[in-house]
Design goal:
The complex is a heterodimer. Chain A is α+β, with helices and mostly antiparallel strands. In chain A, 27% of the residues lie in helices and 30% in strands. Chain A has a six-stranded antiparallel beta sheet with strand order 1-10-9-4-3-2, with no helix packed on it. Chain A has a four-stranded antiparallel beta sheet with strand order 5-6-7-8, with no helix packed on it. Chain A starts with 6 loop residues before the first helix and ends with a strand. The chains are: A alpha+beta, B mainly alpha. The complex binds FE2/S2 (inorganic) cluster (FES). The site of FE2/S2 (inorganic) cluster has 11 residues of chain A, from loops.
């Protein structure tokens, strides 16, 4: 009796090998599909690159040289009204400007005159005010720098570095 | 003693072949995902020097995957072009 092939095997004569083969084959096809999606996704960044190259940044007056003493900062919006930015007159006399959005989770960063640093209140991210580099906290990327030109009595924003 | 059934042997062979192909496709896909994160990191840092190279490399991986898919499809025809 026990040597007899069970009825279910006759009714469903599917081998484990065949079953594994089919599932792996279908999974491989699916992976190729995902691979196509990944390649398309990479294409998005290329499109963005050329779109960004075409978009010219405006030249805008952001402050008067007389209104910012060393160790002070001014908030402005650049390149559009929805992009908060910060202009800093460093303690050493130089001017720098950055996007004000923290590169961690986009909280606005504040300038600290005593340490010449930009601090993010959300998770204590710290950036170097002179370079925008990360000094501490969770952010991984430096603050995007806004290129400026200091004229005789005005400071102009010219564009965003790296774009 | 079990006798080796030629149909079973063929199934075993196909299973091994598909496993190897699946592994290769997986490795290429992992490389593509890594390239994608590279491009995204650059994009978030407002840079774009790696956008084109990562895209080309990713398309290259996809083309290799398509070529491997051709072998996957041929497995069922019982013949693989050399
Ligand atoms: S948002 Fe700035 S540290 Fe998290």
């Amino acid at each position: 009796m026990s040597d007899k092939t069970p009825t279910w095997k006759t009714d469903f004569p599917i081998e484990a090998t065949t079953d594994n083969y089919v599932s792996r084959r279908e999974f491989t096809r699916f992976l190729v599909l995902v691979s196509g999606a990944a390649a398309t996704g990479s294409g998005y960044f290329v499109i963005e690159k050329f779109a960004a190259n075409r978009e010219a940044y405006p030249t805008a007056v952001v402050a008067l040289t007389s209104e910012l003493a060393p160790g002070h900062a001014k908030l402005f919006n650049y390149p559009t009204e929805n992009d908060p930015a910060i202009l800093i007159h460093l303690n050493n006399g130089g001017y720098v400007a950055y996007r004000q959005r923290c590169t961690h989770l986009s909280c606005p960063v504040n300038y600290r005159q005593d340490s010449d640093q930009l601090k993010c209140p959300c998770h204590n991210g710290v950036f170097d005010a002179a370079t925008g580099a990360v000094l501490g906290g969770p952010p991984r990327r430096p603050l995007p720098r806004i290129m400026i030109r200091v004229g005789q009595d005005r400071i102009y924003a010219l564009g965003i570095q790296g774009s | 003693m079990r006798r080796i059934n030629p149909i079973h042997a063929r199934q075993e062979q196909k299973l091994q072949a598909i496993s190897a192909l699946m592994l290769m496709v997986m490795v290429l896909l992992l490389i593509q995902l890594w390239l994608l994160t590279l491009a995204q990191q650059e994009y978030l840092a407002e840079k774009s020097t790696l956008a084109v190279p990562t895209f080309l490399a990713s398309v290259g991986c996809f083309l290799i995957n398509l070529w491997l898919l051709h072998y996957v499809n041929n497995l069922d025809k019982g013949e693989t072009k050399k």
